[in-house]
Amino acid sequence: MTEDIRIAGDGREAEAERELSWRAKSVGLAVLDIDDAELMHSWRSDPVVAHQMGIWPRSLTAVRARIERDVEDDDRDDFLIIPPDGTPVGYVALTGQNIVNGTAQVELMLAAQHRGQGHATAALDAVVDLAFGELPMYRLTAETHTDNAPALAVLAKSGFTQEGISRAACLHRGRRHDLAVFSLLRPEWEELNRPRAWDA
Prior knowledge:
Enzyme class: transferase
Radius of gyration: 16 Å
EC number: 2.3.-.-
Protein name: GNAT family N-acetyltransferase
Shape: globular
Order of helices and strands: EEHHHEEEHEHEEH
Domain N-acetyltransferase: 27-188
Strand content: 25-35%
Largest sheet: 8 strands, mixed
Number of helices: 6
Keywords: Acyltransferase, Transferase
């Protein structure tokens, strides 16, 4: 399964203040680092995450290796979501960036105890502003299970349009799940009536 929109997990207190590489009104984005492997592992190991993302939990070593690999990948940007109190509350990324075509995919994972506070929408809006305001993207896409109500709501609130359904596109716990396919185009983003990240 593609892992393009993720809302799940648990959180831990920030051990040290993180340098923010992108700021928005209520959250900042800090570049994901190898030292964040334990935090990412704890989020990915949560049963709710496994269900909503359709993933198989990986070992800490595997998660660390994946982060190390992704750090070297010029076609993606991975961030921790940091609210004003400095506690990482989730993860957001632009992956599969194709500068020629101006396309990328969005990934989002929010810690369970930090849901319902607006962090997911704020982080998604921030990374969308990065894609369209600083990078030459024209089209962003995201996918999530059709029964992942929190992710569906966040995508809609951030201006994404559901294009269709990928039927029985992933297997989880012995059942096939449909994926909702979403997109947001640059002209649609330009018409959104909300402050941009750089206005924060």
